[in-house]
Amino acid sequence: MKIKQSEILESLIVKGVELHRRSRGGGVVDAVFLATILSEQCHATRLLRSELKEWELYQLRVRLENGLMRYPRTASLPETDVTTTLENLYEGMAHLCRATLTMSKEERLNTGHLLLYVMRETGLLCSRILSDYALDGERVEAEVRALPADEDFYSDMALRPVELRPIHITSATDSESKERERQELLERFGTDLTAAARRGDLDPVVAREREVERVMQVLARRRKNNPILIGEAGVGKSAIVEGLALLLTSGRVPTQLSGKKIFSLDVARLVAGTKYRGEFEERVSKLVKYLTENQDIILFIDEIHNIVGAGSSQGSLDAANILKPALARGEVQCIGATTLAEYREHFERDAALDRRFQRVMVEQTSPEQTLQILHNLRPRYEKHHSVRYTDEALACCVSLAERYITDRHFPDKAIDLLDEVGALCALSADEGGVVGGEQVRSVIALATGIPAESLSLGERQRLSGLAERLACRVVGQQGAVERLARSVVRSRAGLAERGRPMGVFLFVGPTGVGKTLLAKELAKALFDRGDALLRLDMSEYAERHNMSRMIGSPPGYVGYGEGGRLTEAVRRQPYSVILLDEIEKAHPDIYNLLLQLFDEGHLTDGVGRRVDFRNTVIIMTSNLGSGDRQMHRGLGYHLPSDSEISRSDGKAYRDAVERHFTPEFINRLDDVICFDSLTEEAVGRIVDLELQTLFDRLAESGVSGEITPAARGWLAAEGYDGRYGARALKRLIAERVENPIAQMIVSGDVAPRDRIVIDADKELKITLPTKQPA
Fold first, then answer.
1. Does the model's pTM come out above 0.70?
2. Which strand (E) or helix (H) includes residue 471?
3. Which residues pair with 503 in a beta bridge?
4. Dist CA 319 CA 321 (whole Å)
5. pLDDT for 215-233, tens place per residue?
6. Range of the domain at 314
7. pLDDT at position 715, please?
8. For the chain, what is the total number of helices (H) and then of strands (E)?
9. In what order do the strands lie in the sheet with 190-192?
10. Do 279 and 243 touch, CB atoms closer than 8 A?
11. Is residue 773, in this structure, part of any structural domain at all?
12. Which end of the chain is less enclosed by CB atoms within 10 A, N or C?
């Protein structure tokens, strides 16, 4: 008789027959039902959990075990009796299903139908025990009717649906049953990587020959033959194991490893569903026993630090302690993979576990190796996305990922960029679209918010005119602007020292001469974003304990885990200008912290994360030496020229900087840029810039503005103050120009299409000529 059934029902019937052979009382169906209750992978168990309390289900299991398993059987039933009983069971389930559940002509039976059959029968031990719990037959029948016809698994376990197939009822020998049970144990908790390699599911692995050879060398040892791959996330630890699986499949391995298989263990699935004490230990012990008896299997545990403490509770062992003896004796071969931080936290603290593994350090690949990896992966991604990648696109994936994605590692970040640009082009272009460098740059801009242009001709032209554009906004500081622009262009062209910030500068000079303004304009010119300037007022870091606010509090202190103002800002915007305003007011310990930043281009925050500053420009401002300038100008009736004043002021600033900062701090600066005091001519140009900004705002309301030469000269003369710089001029414009105009607008004297004229005689006056006709 042929009956269609799920694979899980088939395996539970085989287990039930084995239980029946070892039991003293009860029948075959009772043993099959007990095997079903012991399994957590079927519909019947889920239905019983929904109807019974946890303790009732446990009691039901214990009563069945007492009835079947208390004493060993002295004689076995004939195989013909077992076969006849199972045929009757199938016929009874099929008849019941056709009568009550309106099954189709092609019957498909699962464990839910078995539960309904047991509830309807009266002559079985399991039926009599189950009747004591007053199950709702109608509700169970309704749930069985709603079950999928072609699957039988406990959905919470996230198991793969099994394939249904017609079978013949046959008896299984003890060895076949045990082998099936062991095979199910492996398939239940992991994946066979060598089988995946045979199917072609694994990507090719290149540029990792040295690491794969080292892993094979450790595996060939007699004892402690367990390599552990240690490296940062994304460097390709799992890919090395997949590369070894590919070599095993092709046979290109030493004789000692010939015929081996790699099995990847999922620790989460191993722990899932173990509620009672001893269940987890039993699972791991069975797994260890099977691996000990089958020396051709190599166990691979990704994120192996998870086995430390996995499944443990008060008074029980975790997976690591159960594995230790077998690992030390060489009975079980295991490959582990973890990050350096997790290795230090879990493995180095457990010396007994650590000495059973041999470390294999995995560094990120170089840009050249990463490009080679992308060339090998290109056919698979082209097939998946139905696009074609050009060589320029692959090169851009490597170069732009290296420059702009600084918080991740090769080759993972380049492969992710390759995948993302393929997905973008597949969604926006026709089938067979071409992916070039321009598409890669657009994906970088979308993903990071950073302008990702390479040094194309357009950017060369923009950088070559950087000094002129900065000088249009920052007046009276031509020397400072040119020195800053030269340093920045040198860094952007790739000629500056690698591994450091794009530039580290100290701006010194009197207040109000444009130091902060130059930093703001540089951020706009370089990064095309108004929010690319990260400003920290260093007067807020005058105390030693304020240093934690920059990089985050250490463990045990308030605010731990929140990150620092400086490090968090750069993590979110890695491509920016950092302005440390009034640096001389910070605590001296802040200077020591900055030494590492200036020299190595990175900082480690309070939670141990490395923050990269290589794509930033760091600018510090200071007023040191402003009060010493007069002493350097000399005495007597001689009036120095502007150039002599500039040189003497620069010497005063540099002397003050050398007195305040240590030599090692000064040596790490790219340049100390001195700003000149504003001249009357520069103040006049500032008047033009400020009033043009005001007129642009008025134009948004439909009002035009005009200033006469007399008014310009009056504002320049009245606003010039060598002590306060341009800030005094801004206050004068706000008081004598903006306030009266605002009052005229509020009172209704000014309407759209009107023209405001700013004039001056002895005093400044603002007038409205005859209004324009409508």
1. no
2. helix 466-473
3. 617
4. 6
5. 999 988 887 888 999 988 8
6. 185-361
7. 84
8. 34, 21
9. 190-192, 261-265, 297-302, 333-338, 227-230, 358-361
10. no
11. no
12. C
